Structures are given as structure tokens and as C-alpha cells.
Amino acid sequence: MTTMYEHVGGEQALLRFAEHFHTSIQQDPLVGPLFLAGSPDHAEHLAAFFCEMLGGPSRYSDELGGFLSLMKAHLGMRITEEQSERFVQRMLASADAVGLPNDERFRTAFAAQIEKAAGFTRKVSLEDDSPMLDAPHPELGRWKW
Fold first, then answer.
1. What domains are defined for the chain?
2. Are 124 and 54 in contact (CB under 8 A)?
């Protein structure tokens, strides 16, 4: 079976997606400030995250800190429900803008996973500390169709 990673066109497609998203989200008055304060490597890290989640190389976990890095990046940010919803909207708009596949099977699965991830990061953002920061850390799960 084809992975979601293969279906979108691999790493280069996901890098274009992450770069577009990062540029567009920084211009958003509601969510932009959260990203302007972040890492200058955010788009590259986001692309690595998506590559891994969609079934490609596991560089995000192997080289960029995986689950622990994801947790630390969002702790204490205090993301609101409105900001989380805008994040999802911007993600899906970026998928359209860069031409990620728009077939129903992919987009339904992709949108559901983006919403789930946004919910997780919002929940984490409301905490200043978490027992999930203690080892052992879970592995990031791959997204399924």
C-alpha cells in the first residue's frame, strides 16, 4: 500500500508545504506571534515532522528530538481554541496552495490528523510541565489512511 508520504510526493513536496505554511502563518495576526518567537528552523523541522508522520524517513525522531522536542516546543504557550482552529485552517490552506493531493481519501485523513495534532499541542501548551517529559518518551506514531 502506498504511504501518505509517497502519495504527497515525498520530502520536497512536504518542504514546500512547510515553507508555505510557515510564511503564511507568520502573517496571521492571531497566530503569527506564536511562530515569530519560534525557531528560525521551524519550517525545516515541520517538514521533517510531516515526512515522518506520513510514513517517510524518521529524521524528526532520529535527529531533531522526536516526541520530547515536540512537547518542549509547545509547553507553556497557552494556545487558545481560536488559535488552534486558525492553525488547522492555515495548514489546510497551505496544502491547497502548494498542490498537495486533494483526493477525498487523502484530504479526509490529513485533515483529521492535523486537527488531532492541533488538539494535542493545544493541550500541552496549557501546561508548564508534564510527566510526559520524563523518560521513557513515547515514539511518534505514523499517520494512517
1. 8-128 (1.10.490.10)
2. no
CA nearest to 95, candidates 11, 18, 4: 18
Closest to 7 in 3D by CA, of 64, 53, 66:
53
Q: Where on the phi/psi map is residue 48: left (φ > 0), alpha (ψ -120 to 50), or beta?
A: alpha
Q: For the chain, how many residues are written?
A: 145
Residue 12: pLDDT band by 50, 70, 90 thresholds? very high
pLDDT in tens, 72-112: 889 999 999 999 999 999 999 999 999 999 999 999 999 99
Rounded CA-CA distance 65/63 in Å is 6
